[in-house]
């Protein structure tokens, strides 16, 4: 199990490196439509009849996200002002989440409903798991509770996958229909979004592997007791 977790950590690092490399590469490719990420976002929202979502610039790199609470598409500084295939892909993807929200996409609703509970769980879960491991010879209850809490975070990771893949699908379909990317730029955008999606896939698998690790500890303790 330790080897699996280490392997997943290395794979995750490799995908993160590849993702940054791809976005850096595609950020150098000027968009023939000559639109910034912010303009791409404006057009996509307008084409879907969404008028109550704001587009704002945020600090950092690859910090782009959609916030359903305050209805904002948050684009990192480079994406907001850049006119590249990478910026177009990211901006359209985040607007894909806004479209999901506007159309009441069920998986996004389910994911959003879990956020408040998970925020509270994440504060206590590591301590409950740690206490459970130390107390396993006396009681299995703390570790069992910790596993139940951790299973929620694992479920959240897997629910995130269809949400992310669907947002990319919507983004690519819109860019093609609107004609804001050429065939070559579409291929770059698709490739960049695929690598971004792989970070979520590895995170979900890593969460599941960690959950199974704690379950194995629980089962071993149960046999000893």
From TrEMBL:
InterPro entries hit by this protein: Zn_peptidase_2
Sorted UniProt keywords: Membrane, Transmembrane, Transmembrane helix
Residues passing through the membrane, by range: 113-136, 143-163, 192-215
Protein name, entry field: Membrane protein
Organism: Hymenobacter frigidus
